[in-house]
Design brief:
The structure holds two protein chains of two kinds. Chain A is mostly helical. Chain A is built from nine helices and no strands. By secondary structure, chain B is mostly helical. About 5% of the residues of chain B have low confidence. The chains are: A mainly alpha, B mainly alpha.
């Protein structure tokens, strides 16, 4: 395995060649290299999933599934340089599967007789008790309201750009869409977001 | 190269610049490069949007357990070249077998009137003898055992009469008598 650069990180800070070498080693069955890639991307993938499902425990499970799937299929990755976008693409698909499963379990739950009140999984955030917990719940609710007028494609493009900090090119790879289409989604999303009163409230929450 | 525009970026142009400033028309891009007011507006809008992502990252929980892979097998090769060809050939053969079997069933299937005739024949056979052929012999219906003649000498049945050697085999008119 090659040595890490002086300031390891993801994306901008990381040495792209070093990452590419890691991916190549991982493709050849090097567990150490693959575990290093997991270390570099785990937090980003976990948070990316959390932003979308708002459930810490399920986000843990899903991020684990993402890396297991990546591990099984890394031989299919054509360009090592696209590893990060490829990982996000797997994660986006896992989130879609998760939402589909949730929808079905919700429909099944309608026919159940036991009381399920108070089991709102969307906001099952592992937050501290007290005001901090309330503040976090309020933040995620306002994010949901901010993105509510956006179409699913616009929401995904917006989240990938401003929450997950992906470039336009990477978003195109994740969503399997041309860059111009991504830009159109982003532009439409921005028009709606800028008109929303929740943008100012969320931005003011920044320290 | 066009001259820098004197006009400041409007709302839509500002949003376009947030998405990708290089997509602006040449004149507006030149203006943006030289106008501190538009640059500040663009920076403020971009920072406002990015700040939401930063807060989200801070408020989202950290993953509590790490993910590790051990004893991974060699990465699988993608289907390509020879493997793809053999896979396609196998798929084509399987498809052919399925088509032939479906076609032959359809082609050799008896017509409606033949099926009715066959059904009537089967019903008639069952009325005459409901047992299948294999069971008929076991039940001895087709070939009953010989019954004893009460008028006959019972000892003859047990001890058959023994004539001169070969006499029983030769007809009366062909016998040579002394």
């Amino acid at each position: 395995m090659t040595q890490p650069p002086s300031s390891p990180g993801i994306g901008r800070d990381a040495d792209a060649r070093w990452l590419t070498e890691l991916v190549r080693s991982a493709r050849q069955g090097d567990d150490l290299a693959f575990n290093r890639l997991i270390d570099l991307h785990h937090e980003a993938i976990y948070k990316m999933i959390f932003y979308r499902i708002k459930d810490a425990m399920d986000a843990e499970d899903l991020s684990q599934e993402v890396f297991l799937q990546a591990c099984r299929n890394i031989g299919r990755l054509r360009q090592a340089a696209n590893f990060r976008a490829w990982l996000f693409r797997i994660a986006v698909n896992r989130v879609k599967d998760y939402r589909r499963r949730k929808r079905w379990s919700f429909i099944r739950g309608l026919f159940r007789t036991e009381d399920l009140s108070g089991q709102d999984g969307r906001l099952a955030v592992q937050a501290p008790e007290g005001p901090e917990r309330v503040r976090r719940q309020q933040f995620w609710q306002e994010v949901d309201r901010l993105l509510e007028p956006l179409s699913p494609a616009e929401q995904e493009a917006f989240r990938l750009r401003f929450f997950d900090q992906l470039s336009i090119k990477e978003i195109g790879q994740v969503l399997d869409k041309p860059e111009n289409t991504v830009k159109t989604h982003l532009y439409r999303a921005l028009r709606k977001v800028k008109a929303s009163p929740f943008l100012d409230r969320l931005a003011e929450a920044a320290p | 190269m066009s001259m820098p525009s004197e006009k400041h970026l409007d709302y839509d142009e500002l949003l376009k610049a947030v998405v990708d400033a290089s997509d602006l028309p040449d004149g507006l891009r030149e203006h943006l490069d030289h106008c501190p007011q538009c640059q500040e507006q663009l920076q403020r809008t971009t920072q406002r949007l990015e700040s939401i992502g930063r807060i989200a990252a801070r408020l989202a929980p950290e993953p509590s357990r790490s993910v590790r892979v051990h004893g991974r097998r060699q990465a699988r090769r993608p289907l390509g070249g020879g493997r793809m060809k053999s896979f396609m050939a196998m798929a084509a053969v399987a498809m052919l077998v399925v088509l032939v079997s479906v076609w032959s069933r359809h082609f050799f299937a008896p017509s409606g009137s033949d099926q009715v005739g066959q059904l009537i024949a089967d019903v008639n056979r069952l009325v005459e003898n409901p047992l299948p052929a294999g069971y008929s012999s076991l039940a001895a219906v087709a070939d009953p055992l010989p019954t004893a003649d009460p008028a006959a000498d019972p000892t003859a049945f047990i001890v058959p009469e023994v004539g001169p050697p070969g006499a029983g085999d030769i007809p009366e008119n062909e016998r040579i008598t002394g």
